[in-house]
From TrEMBL:
Name of this protein: Nucleoside-diphosphate-sugar epimerase
PANTHER family noted in UniProt: L-THREONINE 3-DEHYDROGENASE (PTHR42687), L-THREONINE 3-DEHYDROGENASE, MITOCHONDRIAL (PTHR42687:SF1)
GO molecular function: L-threonine 3-dehydrogenase activity
GO biological process, alphabetically ordered: L-threonine catabolic process
Family: Belongs to the NAD(P)-dependent epimerase/dehydratase family.
Entry-linked SUPFAM superfamilies: NAD(P)-binding Rossmann-fold domains
Pfam families on file: Epimerase
Domain NAD-dependent epimerase/dehydratase as annotated: residue spans: 4-241
Xref: InterPro entries: Epimerase_deHydtase, NAD(P)-bd_dom_sf, NAD(P)_epim/dehydratase
Amino acid sequence: MEKILVIGAAGQLGSELTRSLADQFGAEQVIATDLNESAKAKFDFCRFQVLDVMDKDGLRNLVKNEKVTQIYHLAAVLSAVGEKKPLFAWELNMESLLHVLELAKEFKLNKVYWPSSIAVFGPNTPKINTPQYCVKEPNTVYGISKQAGERWCEYYFQKFNVDVRSLRYPGLIGYKSLPGGGTTDYAVDIYHKALAGEKFDCFLREDSSLPMMYMPDAIKATLDLMNAPSESVKIRSSYNLAAMNFTPKESYESILKYIPDFKIEYNPDFRQAIADSWPDSIDDTCARKDWGWKHDYDLDAMTKDILENLPNFKF
Ligand code: AKB
């Protein structure tokens, strides 16, 4: 019987992934954790505990007492906030991963999941169809921490046989939760503004193309990777993962088909430099070949789904 611990469960990815994990493993087998007690309200479908991932002993006691067998470690400081608080981002992103990998080694956990990001790439990386293996010189603290984290994951797999699996997510877009502190967040915010009948002030240039993915695809990819037989998971740093690429202008035009009087203005800020350092598109052949990854949503299918469902969604 698996016992799943989700760290940072109330975030953008965690809010949706935790529900899918509870569906797969059962409500009693999944423990959602978050820094804030107020997050408890989101998790009426599984167990919940307050946890600060930097509290090494608290985390160890939880894993030991609950006989945890798998950890999904989703807590992180994202790219934009990371640039405002570089040392805090480095400390949180790296130390928390090392705590989790050490616990996986000590308690011989069955599996660990840790998300990486397109932020591992940098200005010297090939921008179009960025390959799995290429120059990576990230110039954000978030990207540096994800790149170093990938090396640690592979290290723990090779040296200590820790079954750790990871995906380099593109920008994730969902309507059930709000992102916090990323560069790709505009692609979520734009739908909220369109439905509220407000003008959207975009912090990226209209032609700034980035790899993106709709949340149901991201959840599917994560569960497919975690459910794949160990031998199929040939990459233990992190897999490139792709679905679609678009610019703010293309995102706006896709919404205009449904909301013709929607208005946008472009006022690039410091996040433009971060976006400029990331790929336009990603080659995810390895994920497709090794464990059968296939995405379902393109931009227009995602827009239709969000605009149909967001007005009825209760936060
Ligand atoms: C961010 O924008 O920081 C994240 C990411 C691409 O990892 N969404």
